[in-house]
């Protein structure tokens, strides 16, 4: 019985093998050994040790890193003796015909603690006074009686493996992979799909010919991201992931099965035709930028959204899992170098977007809004850019405490109603300084924001954008002199607004009509200026937001016209595509906004 248990546990922890002999040195031949897995992290007081005893029982020990090795070995010996005693009792029950002398001999053998030694990689016995942290090195050999174990210190290990709840045919399935001493790009992935249960098919005939029911799972692919075909509709998926560290070390595999079957996709989507322009990543000296308000789940899943804002949208198409399928396919297909997103739920970033876009070579940064569950995300292609620094700010906090904005704050103090409103807003600015991986002299400041939404909040948005541009000036002129900027976001401002005019022209007069956007009571008049020469890279589309009660251009990618120029603007979906299901979002479009995409190059 214990052999069967040991065999089963051995398959989890490594290949079981017994090596004869004892003495002071392990055998010269390395051979196959059981694994003794050690996890030892300097920041933690204890190390952990996992192995399977010769009796088949698994052991997981926690020992102080500073403890002398001898104490840990003594504990292992005690555990091994207990395991032997239990095995002897089971053996006695299984063979009651054994005589008293045989039982006594078995009991004595079980009670004797086996010799336990630890040998270094070069075969020398490790002294018992050596601290655990120094003793348990990778490649050492642990000997428990006649059994020997190869020590694996901090091997690659999976801490989390998840599949999305919703799987659609034709849409990429991106697992969430969290690992320790490993990286997802170095892991091995193997996908399986259920064997179709219907009778009479080729698979069933082959399984019957082989005898029995055949395997429940059929291998489908060996890649990190798997896109199920229409042929897999109705079948569940399984993923087997083996963690790796890029140095030819692999840990224990883990498997996860999908909670439901693959479902049929929606057919043609609004972004399919756009993907024809973005099949390849931009070449050297160019970059593709995307700005997109992806519609936070917190705003899509309310009674007001379902009945007033988006009554035309099928309820299932407002579900987060469904929209995430569309969104991940859309974003992956743009082959972008920079992606700036707004209305990103905190959990969506961590559990869905970051893992998915990581699989496509993009590194993600997240900044949550103050007192909200959603915020901003910036992704950059890691083989093109490295992150130099981050300079995120909340507008309200910057006005209160940053001396950069003291002059503006003093002006605003004259208008207490407006000041109070500005300081109550949760809007933030995400600023990331990136450096080219191929030309270190080439740096860029990427800013991302989502301004106040209210239709009568033009004066509030003017204050917010003044803070934003002042902060960007500090980063792009003072901290990193003369680096170009790309400023993306949902500015909630049409081309006729004061905010757009201010960004585009470099100044705004104190008598602009937007200073009284919410009536005379909230009037605030002040001239503003900024030093940048900014250009809307995608021009002024007829709309970037299209819902039942409104359509207009609210989103922009502003670029430094002195340093960057536009190579191409990816055409927006046609009006017919946008209105196929009346408005946005829809079964074929995941947001109420439309992504802006352009290819830029350095001058």
UniProtKB/TrEMBL annotation:
Residues 81-102 are annotated as: Disordered. Residues 291-593 form the Endonuclease/exonuclease/phosphatase domain. The keyword Chloroplast does not apply. It is found in: Mitochondrion matrix. Its cofactor is Mg(2+). It comes from the Eukaryota. PANTHER family: 2',5'-PHOSPHODIESTERASE 12, CARBON CATABOLITE REPRESSOR PROTEIN 4. Residues 83-93 have a biased composition (Basic residues). Its main location: mitochondrion. One of its GO terms (cellular component) is mitochondrial matrix. Gene3D superfamilies: Endonuclease/exonuclease/phosphatase (3.60.10.10). This is 2',5'-phosphodiesterase 12. Signal peptide: none annotated.
């Amino acid at each position: 019985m214990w052999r069967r248990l040991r065999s089963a546990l051995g398959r989890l922890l490594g290949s079981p093998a017994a090596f004869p002999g004892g003495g002071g040195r392990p055998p010269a031949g390395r051979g196959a050994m059981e694994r003794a897995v050690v996890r030892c992290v300097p920041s933690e007081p204890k190390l952990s040790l996992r192995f399977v005893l010769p009796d088949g029982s698994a052991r997981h020990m926690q020992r102080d890193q500073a403890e002398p090795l001898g104490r840990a070995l003594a504990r292992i010996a005690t555990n091994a003796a207990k395991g032997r005693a239990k095995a002897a009792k089971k053996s006695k029950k299984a063979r009651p015909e054994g005589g008293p002398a045989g039982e006594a001999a078995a009991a004595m053998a079980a009670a004797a603690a086996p010799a336990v030694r630890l040998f270094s990689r070069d075969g020398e016995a490790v002294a018992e006074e050596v601290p655990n942290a120094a003793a348990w090195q990778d490649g050492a050999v642990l000997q428990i009686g006649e059994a020997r174990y190869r020590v694996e210190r901090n091997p690659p290990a999976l801490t989390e493996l998840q599949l999305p709840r919703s799987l659609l045919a034709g849409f990429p399935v991106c697992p969430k992979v969290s690992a320790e001493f490993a990286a997802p790009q170095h892991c091995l992935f193997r996908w399986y799909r259920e064997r179709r249960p219907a009778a009479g098919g080729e698979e069933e005939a082959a399984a019957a010919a082989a005898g029995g029911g055949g395997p429940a799972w059929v291998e489908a692919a060996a890649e990190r991201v798997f896109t199920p075909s229409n042929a897999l509709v109705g079948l569940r998926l399984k993923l087997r992931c083996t963690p790796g560290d890029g140095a030819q070390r692999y840990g224990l595999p883990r498997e996860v099965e999908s909670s439901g079957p693959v479902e049929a996709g929606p057919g043609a989507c609004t972004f399919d035709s756009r993907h024809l322009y973005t099949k390849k990543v931009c070449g050297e000296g160019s970059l593709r930028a995307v700005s997109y308000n992806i519609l936070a789940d917190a705003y899509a899943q309310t009674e007001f959204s379902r009945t007033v804002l988006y009554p035309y949208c099928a309820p299932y198409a407002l579900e987060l899992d469904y929209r995430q399928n569309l969104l991940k396919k859309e974003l992956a297909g743009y082959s972008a170098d920079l992606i700036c997103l707004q209305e990103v739920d905190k959990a969506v970033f961590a559990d869905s977007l970051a893992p998915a876009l990581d699989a496509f070579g993009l590194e993600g940064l997240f900044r949550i809004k103050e007192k909200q569950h959603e915020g901003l995300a910036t992704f950059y292609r890691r083989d093109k850019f490295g992150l130099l620094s981050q300079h995120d700010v909340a507008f309200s906090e910057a006005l209160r405490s940053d001396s950069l904005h003291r002059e503006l704050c003093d002006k605003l103090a004259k208008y207490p109603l407006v000041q109070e409103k500005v300081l109550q807003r949760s809007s933030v600015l995400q600023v990331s300084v990136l450096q080219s991986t191929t030309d270190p002299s080439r740096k860029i400041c990427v800013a991302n924001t989502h301004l106040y939404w209210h239709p009568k909040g033009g004066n509030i948005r003017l204050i917010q954008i003044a803070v934003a541009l002042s902060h960007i000036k500090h980063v792009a002129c003072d901290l990193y002199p003369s680096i170009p900027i790309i400023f993306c976001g949902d500015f909630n401002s049409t081309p006729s607004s004061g905010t757009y005019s201010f960004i585009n022209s470099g100044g705004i007069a104190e008598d602009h009509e937007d200073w009284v956007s919410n009536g005379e009571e909230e009037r605030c008049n002040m001239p503003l200026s900024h030093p940048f020469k900014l250009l809307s890279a995608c021009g002024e589309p007829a709309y970037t937001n299209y819902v039942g009660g409104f359509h207009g251009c609210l989103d922009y990618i502003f670029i430094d016209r002195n340093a960057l120029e536009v190579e191409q603007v990816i055409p927006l979906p046609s009006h017919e595509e946008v209105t196929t299901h009346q408005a946005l979002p829809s079964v074929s479009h995941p947001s109420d906004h439309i992504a802006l995409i352009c290819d830029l190059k350095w001058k």
